[in-house]
Every structure is written in structure tokens, then in C-alpha cells.
Amino acid sequence: MTIFQSSTWVKLLGLLPGELNPNEAGWLALPQHHMPLMSNRRAQMIMNRVRLFASLFAVLTPLWMFVDLLALPNPLAWQLSLLRLGATGCFVFILYYRMEVTLFNAWRGMAMLFAIPTLFYVISYLLLARYHLSGVSAAVGTGYAFLPFVLLAGLAIFPLTLLESAAFAAPILIAHVIAGYFQFPVVDWPSFWGAFWLQGLIAGVAALAGVCQLAFMIALVQQAVRDPLTGAFSRRSGEEVLELQFILAGRSGSPFSVAFIDIDHFKAVNDQYGHQQGDVLLKQFAQTLTQGLRKGDVLVRWGGEEFLLLLPNIDCQQAMHALQRLRRNGFGLRPDRTPLTASIGVADMLEEGCNDWRRLVEIADQRMYVAKQQGRNRVIATAGNEPPVSQPVLA
């Protein structure tokens, strides 16, 4: 077990018990294992903050031109002014350029945002090094050296993993080294490396701030998307995940199946043993089912005793076999100690030719009712085995 999967890592970040479990703590270091819904929401937040940062730079960057023109000698002042106008145009482009909300596009937006001022810093540093400034001009020129510090501190507003923070901080730190390399004969090396050490310290603090943001974001998303009773996804968040996975499967041409699950005779449990016992049964059913799922499968509480299971990258027949295995292993026991069973309908996006996830769910729902009509405790996965669907059979 690594430090990122341990409770020690959670304690080091100052997180309260219950906010993240040890498995989720690893999400703070690497982004690969984030659930799609989490990645999508984080991508939206990052892209919004990229535009916020770009708008700030788009306003402040050209305003400093007047200071340069008043305080710096020509042609340096005009060279820096043209450089500022070019950077401003790039910031305006980021501000108004619209990309699809994906984590990759969020990373790309951040890369563009930080690349512009980083290049601006290197070029301005080389231009300023050609002149021996003094007095007010020297003070204005020194201000350019603070740009890397501002950029590194700006990383703190983004909810980033440790790996992402390191990836975005590294080019800024490297730019500082490159600027010193080109001015090797005249650089005051103690001051240079002191500034570099301070930049590294700021980068570390910004990374911790980003990780803590991410930790609380994960905790809040987990609380918001989960059904409090069963721990499965709520219907609202489940629909969001379903739409996202449906789109991804459509683009890649990979199979995507859904299973509509209804617990058999659940109403009788509520009537005979009370709603509290019914809640216990729902929780038991969801936990038992989840234990037999793959890592990428998603269980959604659709309503009452109905659940929707999202099964990416497997077709209808593969889904049927997996569900038959789960059914044979059992879903637990009813209050009278008899086996708990369920009626299940399965549909695959490719096999059904669906271009709308709602239609896919409807087909799976219809097959679930067929399973009930045929005697419950079974899986219906192919249209060829289905008799005409009449009125729904009540549990």
C-alpha cells in the first residue's frame, strides 16, 4: 500500500474522517481513476477558472504598457508593448474560445493559459538584459522578474492532483533556469537560486492548495451523487453518468449495455414487515450487487426498488451472462429467510441501434416487465425471446 492509499495521507492533508476513504485518497495523486462524473465536473471547474484567469490577464497585461512607455527607454518600451499586445490577444482568444467540456480540453486550456505568460517572461527577460537600467527604469524592469511567482501562485485556484500540479509548475521553473542560462556571465547566482528556491516553495504550497480543493470536491461530489440509503448513484447523477457513457460509447463504437433491475415482491416486504425492514433489504441488495460488479460498472437507484446498472464495453449477451452469474450467487435473503430475487431486463446500444439513452433504458425496462410476466427471478436480454408486452406486472 502506497502513502496515497493510506489513512496517513488523508491525515496529512487535514481531512476529516469520512470525507475520503483510503482508496479515494489515491485520487489526489493521480487522475486516472476518477469516475467519469467527477472528471466531467472537475473539467468544467478548471475551464471556468482558466477563463477567469485569462480575463484577468487580458485586462491587466495591456494596462502596464503605459508604465513601460513612461519609464523605459526606446526601443525597449515599444518592444515590450508589442509583446504585451500579442499576449493580450492570446488571452482574449482563450477567453472566447469554446471547447467541449472534457478533462483533456481542460488540461489544454490550462497549458495555453500558462504557456503565454511563461513565454512572455522568457522573451521579456532577454530583452531587458540588453539594457543597463537604473532608477525608476530599473524598478519597472525588476517587476518582470516576479511573473513566475504570480503564475505558480495562480495554480492554487485549480483543483489539481499532485501529478497535474507538478506538470504545470515544471515549465515555469524550467523557464526561470533557461532565462538564467542565456545570461550566464552577468547573473547574480546566489540571488538567482534563491529566487528559484522560493518559486519551488510557492509551487509546493500551490500544489497542496490544489490537492485540498480536489479532496473536498471529491467528498462533496460523492455526497451529492449518492443515494443516502443504498450508496448507489442517485437517479439525477445516474442520468448524467449514463448520458456521458452513452456519448463516449457512441464515439468509440464500443458496446454499452444497461440492465433494468426490479426486486421481486418488494411491496410485500413493506406491507408485512414495515418500511424500515424494506430499507434494510434495499441496502443489502445494493451492497451485494455492487460487490460482484466490475470497477467501471455503475449502479443507479432509479426509484423505489428499481435499479439501473450501466455496463460499458460489454454487449447484451456478455451482460446477460454476467447478470446470470450475479443472480446465481444470490442477492441476499428476505426477512423470512427465503432468497431475495430480482427481474432483470438488458439492452445494448449497438444491438438496438439506439441514438438516445432514454430509448435504451426504455427497452431494458420493457424487458424487465417481460421477466416478471414470465415468472420473475430471471434475465431477459434479447428481443427474440420476448412475447408482446402487456400491462406491467406489479411487484
UniProtKB/TrEMBL annotation:
Transmembrane listed as a keyword: yes
PROSITE patterns assigned to the protein according to its UniProt record, in alphabetical order: GGDEF (PS50887)
Pfam families reported in the protein's UniProt record: GGDEF (PF00990)
Stretches assigned to the GGDEF domain: 254-384
EC number(s) recorded for this UniProt protein: 2.7.7.65
Primary enzyme class: transferase
UniProt keyword annotations, A-Z: Membrane, Transmembrane, Transmembrane helix
Catalytic activity reported: 2 GTP = 3',3'-c-di-GMP + 2 diphosphate
Transmembrane segments: 50-70, 76-97, 109-128, 134-158, 165-184, 196-221
Protein name (record): diguanylate cyclase
